[in-house]
Specification:
This protein is mainly alpha-helical and 305 residues long. The protein has one domain. 70% of the residues lie in helices and 5% in strands. It contains ten helices and four strands. Strand 3 and strand 4 form a beta hairpin. 43% of the residues are buried. It is a multi-pass membrane protein.
């Protein structure tokens, strides 16, 4: 059964789109990620124009993040003050990212830049996650204790000026690295269509030394508003959000996430990280192959703008 996507301007098999949404939702529920870094490459693989894939994929992130953020808020594991500072940086970064997105589109280099960014980020993050999880699995097999950092251990980030106290997170930290992190994630959201949680969560834990129990909920809080803002501005500026495609992906994603949570609860943390690392690397390699392999149709017609 085919359905026409008005903004993407092509007909697609609705069951394939439903399958993509359900699969990404399943993985989101199992691994606890927004899924934007997976749905955008999948849409590109299915010949959805990257301009539409990036802008529409952000909706999947919003849908999968709202329920998680509400749950963390109810449990008291969401730092609203820290999330607001992240959000300020994120909104500024997303605004600049929209201009970069539009500029690259006018130059005709948007497809190439998006693919290159995904190859770099997915290859780096996937490789680091896989290496760390394999070390954890080896330690578990040998019954070795996990090396822990001493409480209160600081790095150069904690010596920066303009400090602010975040009572929920129990930290006293400069707003400069927090705004910079939000700013960078905002740009990635606009240009790549990702929520950025796969970068923001490790950065908050290992660089800013924010307690793990508030990191996920605070990250989701920032992601919701940054991606929602990006989607609205993309629709108004570049007319690249396909509401039909977004609706199908969101419905399927919500259903798939319910089953993913059940499966994820049966696996250990290091096993989940290893599987996610392999998945991220596989998507990155697939995109890299697309960049170097000679296409079937060497010449194509495209309309710019």
């Amino acid at each position: 059964m085919t359905i026409y996507l008005p903004i993407a301007e092509l007909s697609v098999n609705v069951f394939i789109i439903l399958g993509m949404g359900a699969a990404v939702g399943f993985l989101s529920g199992m691994f606890g990620v927004g899924g934007g870094f997976l749905i955008t490459p999948l849409l590109i693989f299915y010949n959805i124009p990257p301009v539409v894939a990036v802008a529409t994929g952000a909706n999947q992130v919003v849908a999968s993040s709202v329920s998680g953020a509400i749950s963390h808020f109810r449990r008291g594991t969401l730092d609203m003050k820290l999330g607001t500072v992240l959000l300020i940086g994120g909104l500024v970064g997303a605004t600049i990212g929209i201009y970069i997105f539009s500029w690259l589109r006018r130059l005709g280099q948007l497809d190439l830049i998006i693919s290159l960014l995904y190859v770099i980020f997915l290859g780096t993050v996937g490789g680091l996650m896989l290496a760390e999880s394999l070390r954890a699995l080896r330690r578990a097999a040998r019954n070795e204790a996990v090396p822990l950092k001493r409480p209160g251990q600081h790095n150069w980030v904690h010596r920066l000026p303009f400090k602010m106290r975040f009572k929920k997170s129990k930290i006293y930290l400069s707003v400069i690295p927090i705004l910079a992190l939000g700013f960078g994630i905002g740009i990635l959201t606009s240009v790549m269509g990702v929520g950025g949680g796969f970068i923001m969560v490790p950065a908050m834990i290992y660089l800013l030394r924010i307690p793990t129990n508030v990191v996920v909920g605070t990250s989701l809080f920032q992601i919701i508003f940054t991606t929602a803002y990006t989607t609205i501005v993309q629709a108004a500026t570049n007319y690249s959000v396909d509401i039909v495609l977004a609706f199908i992906l969101m419905v399927a994603g919500v259903i798939g996430a319910q089953y993913g949570v059940r499966v994820g609860q049966k696996l250990r943390g290091e096993q989940l990280r290893a599987l996610l690392g392999l998945l991220v690397l596989a998507v990155g390699v697939r995109l890299a192959v697309e960049l170097v392999v000679t296409p079937d149709d060497i010449y194509s017609l495209a309309i710019g703008g």
